[in-house]
Amino acid sequence: MALFDWHKHFDPVLSYLNETGNTRWTTALKEQLTRRFEDNPHGDMARWHNALQSLPDVADARVDLNQSAITLTSPGGLDPDAMTRLENGLRGLMPWRKGPFDFFGTYIDTEWRSDWKWDRVAPHLADLAGRTILDVGCGSGYHCWRMAGAGARQVIGIDPGLLFMFQFLAVKGYLGQAPVDLLPVRMEDLPADMECFDTTFSMGVLYHRRSPLDHLLELKGTLRRGGELVLETLVVDGPEGYSLMPEDRYGQMRNVWFLPSCPTLLRWLDRTGFRNARVVDVSETTTDEQRQTDWMRFNSLADFLDPDNPSKTIEGYPGPKRATLIAEKP
Ligand SMILES: C[S@@+](CC[C@H](N)C(=O)[O-])C[C@H]1O[C@@H](n2cnc3c(N)ncnc32)[C@H](O)[C@@H]1O
């Protein structure tokens, strides 16, 4: 199989970062991408890369970024052979967790209705038109596309998950110059204090961080003065100061560290130097929002809850509840 040519996919965003004065980041990225793709490639990379390459070319692809599914269409349509190659290629990139997507009539019903999260968050955001955005832990980039649909000038998502990157590239491959990029790196890999983004999102990441206050400080460092943080994370009920640390797994998830109450989160934002922090939404996650589908055939939320009491996780903790908070960097 052909080696994954990371230059082809990432040189344009590296050039953009250089042109916008982020040379510190491009220097670090070149080393990280070389390590990731050349020195130490992931065991499944050849399979995912082949699946990506098998997708048919569509010369007249169009996209609608403002529907619940990121929707690709082709006025000329795809012939049956191309439709078969499309379906097989996309199946080769399973499991699809974050979406939904509609590739020229092939609808990918993802594990998560990520559009529901967007519908909860979007009404509370400063107008995204013309903004430069960082989406930390962006998964397949579903929300990045929605941000572009809301008029963002440039969106950069970061996520260490390589399958997510290939799923992102499956969409991006049809959209050429779209101002949306996904870099397969972690928050900790970014240089400190870049202070260049107008809005930074961290959705579904804080509870995976062993040191949540450091995560908030890192996020603050990405923002220009007056920039907006959008933080979405698992919370529990409780007074200011309260935070749950699971003994081991939470809802079968590993790497879950702190589930604070909303008043605790507000205090954390205040203590890490954000201003005007407010909770704009609190929602329980249901088995309609996160579930097994034909495109994600592993266990999902219904299997992670107590069958006798679905308001609890299988470990006996309160069931998943998520809060969205918005705050500004002074
Ligand atoms: C629960 S998913 C959330 C995805 C998406 N933001 C959403 O809200 O639907 C958490 C994501 O964070 C990513 N992640 C975990 N640790 C990270 C880190 N240190 N830096 C950046 N992303 C991270 C994971 O790979 C995963 O895709």
Automatic annotation (TrEMBL):
This is tRNA U34 carboxymethyltransferase. Its EC number is 2.5.1.-. Residues 309-330 are annotated as: Disordered. The keyword Nuclease does not apply. It comes from the Bacteria. The gene is cmoB. It catalyses: carboxy-S-adenosyl-L-methionine + 5-hydroxyuridine(34) in tRNA = 5-carboxymethoxyuridine(34) in tRNA + S-adenosyl-L-homocysteine + H(+). Belongs to the class I-like SAM-binding methyltransferase superfamily. CmoB family. HAMAP family: tRNA_carboxymethyltr_CmoB. Keywords: Methyltransferase, Transferase, tRNA processing. Catalyzes carboxymethyl transfer from carboxy-S-adenosyl-L-methionine (Cx-SAM) to 5-hydroxyuridine (ho5U) to form 5-carboxymethoxyuridine (cmo5U) at position 34 in tRNAs. Carboxy-S-adenosyl-L-methionine binds at residues 98, 112, 117, 137, 187-188, 203, 207, 322. NCBIfam families: PRK15068.1, tRNA 5-methoxyuridine(34)/uridine 5-oxyacetic acid(34) synthase CmoB. It comes from Marinobacter nauticus (Marinobacter hydrocarbonoclasticus). Homotetramer. The keyword Methyltransferase applies.
